[in-house]
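Subject: complex prediction, re-run

Hi both,

The earlier run crashed halfway through, so I resubmitted it with identical inputs.
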Amino acid sequence: MNTPNNSSLLKGSLSVMILRLLEDRERMYGYEITQKVKELTAGEMAITEGALYPALHKLEAEGLLTAEIQLVDGRARKYYSLTKTGHTEAAGRMAELAAFLENLNLVLKLKPSL
Amino acid sequence: MLTTNQLTAINYHLREENRLTNEDLIAELTDHYTDALNERMVHGLPFESTLTDVQQAFGGVSGLQKMERGYNRITFQKYDSLWMKYIQKQGQWPHCLVPLFVFGVVYWTTTGMSRQASFSAGTLVYTPWFSFISGSIAGLLIKFTQLIIQGGIRGKNFPHKARYLVVRIIPFALLLYGISVGLTYLNGYLPPFVYGATMSAYAALIIMYTISYSQFYQAVGKKDARIG
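This time it finished cleanly. Structure:
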C-alpha cells in the first residue's frame, strides 16, 4: 500500500515514472497511468492522484509531453505522449535516478562499524 | 457504463461540491472519475460511496482545490511564455514596422509641442495616454467581471483566466500608466529630444502591449475552443 511515508519518497520520482511509462507505451491518459503503476508493482505502490495531473500539466508545459484530446464514450479524454525532447530527457532523468538509487543503496547497506 | 444522471452527478460533484473552476482540469477529472467509478461499480459497489472513495484518493475537497491551484500556477507559466512569445514577435521583422512607425509619428508630432512646466494632481488625469490606458483597464475589469459571473467564485479558487487578468494583465496596464505619469513629471527636466524619444518609445511599447495581448487572447481562446 502507498503509505504517507513512501508517497513522499515517490514525489521526487513521479515525473521520471511518467516519462518511463510513456517511453514504453506510445500514449497514455491519467487514469491509465495510475492503474499501470498499481499493476506493475502488484498494488504495492500507488501514484497520488492529486500529484499526477499537475505533474502531467508541468511536463506538457516544459515541452516534454504533448497532449491530444479524443472523444471516448462522449467525453473528452486527454492522451499524453513523449515529444522528441521528452524522449531525450526521459533517458537523462532515468540515468540520474538510477545513479541516485545506487548510491542510496550503498549508504543503506552500510555495515555498522565496530 | 454510467447513466446520464450519474454523469451529471459527477459534474455537480466536481463543480459545486469541490468548487473546481478550471475547465481543462474538470474535463480530465471527469474522465478519471468515470473510469474509476465504472471499474469499482462492476464489483457491485454503490455509486455514492464509490464517488466518495475516488474523491478521497485526491485528498477530499481540500486536496482537489489544492491540486487545482497547482495546476493553475503551471497554466500561468504557460500563459506567460505564450504572451512573451507574442511580445518578442513585435520586435521581429516585419512586425516591428508597426511600433517603429508609431515611434516615428509620435517623435515627429511631439518635438515641436508646447510642454507642461509644472506637475500637479491634475497631471495624473491629463497625462498622455491616460484615456487609452484607463479605457484598457476598464475593458479588462469588464472581462474580469464576465469571467467571474460565468465561473463563479469558489473559495480560494476562482476562474484562472480571471485571476490571470488580476495578477498579470491589469498590473502591466497600471505599470504603463505609471510610466506615462513618470514621463509627464520628468517633462520639465529632460532635454526636448530625450523627452520626445522616451515618449515615442513609450508609445511604441503601448502598441506592442496592445497587439501582443490581442494575439495572446485569441490564441488562448482558440485553444479553449479546440478543447470545448
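The mean pLDDT of chain A is 87.

- K.
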